[in-house]
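Before a colleague's protein record goes any further, I have to sign it off. I want your independent view on whether this chain really folds as the tokens say. The record follows directly below this note.
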Amino acid sequence: MNVELASQRLDDLAECAYRLGKAFAAEAEQAEAVSRKVEFYHLFNRCFASVRLSIALQLRLRREAARGEAPVLAEAARQRVEPTLERESPDHDRPDHDRPERDPPEVETERERDRETVSFPVLLRTLHRVAADASALPGPPPAELPALRELLARIADHPPAGGESETPREAASALTTLARRPGSGPPQHPDPQRPGAQRPGARRATGPP
């Protein structure tokens, strides 16, 4: 799967989640029981959280593609959090009376609450939960629910990356590689117990025995 196909999959997921979210919002407005309103609100909230995740992943894809790095979403599978903290101001060493005014602590706490983990596995888990919870509701399912199931099933099929026009780096950017759990890659440091692992050299004597 190349970069264009990965971007298209994210766009399809975002569009489907957007339409489902609108349908759940309409159902919440029409529901009479408070419990039903709450159920539809939670579904609406998860749908638009999925839209935000899809957009964030597409922006990351474009950023990495602009740098010429085809495996643009590999880091997303490592459950990394999109950096949201502002860089420390160069005036951090100034006296308190010279420092510019900052937001009060309660505002910074709200910002911390607004952070979301941006990763492809989180997006898939959220959409699978939307599909499961929507199927459990009484009454006919929303019209977009079968489309969401089809998209999720297509991604779960793990289609092989191929095609003469793809480079090895483009093949490595398949969405299926994003679903690997963190820590599935090779170890970062050689194991000293393994055969062939580099061992530290013996220390030279620095004095008489």
Remarks:
- DSSP finds six helices and no strands in the chain.
